[in-house]
Amino acid sequence: MDKKQFKILGIGLAAGLVNGLFGSGGGTLVVPALVFLLNVDDHKAHATAISIILPLSIVSVLIYYRHNIVKLNIAFIVALGGMLGSFLGAKLLNKVPVNILRKIFGSFIIFAAIRMLIK
Description:
Blueprint: H1 3-22, H2 30-37, H3 42-66, H4 72-93, H5 98-118
Helix pairs in contact: 1-2, 1-3, 2-3
């Protein structure tokens, strides 16, 4: 395994761990890691992170479901809205310039972090 593959595996391991613990990691961890550690184009990093979310989520939700900690009624409704939002976001991704995409993404992460810290 070469150095780049080792980095990619490490990114996946960290994303999976964060996903399992916090329900996050696909975008919040993978996008910056791909951009800054592997020099992947921002648009491709966002699209790649989205492709990672499904397998991570399937593994996590199976474990959560076995422990009876999933609120399925809420999950299904949020998933419906999420599918519509994902469709719209995927259509918009390539239309947003990189500098604006970074500002929006960074602002969202900072806002979410501040909300989590003050709650």
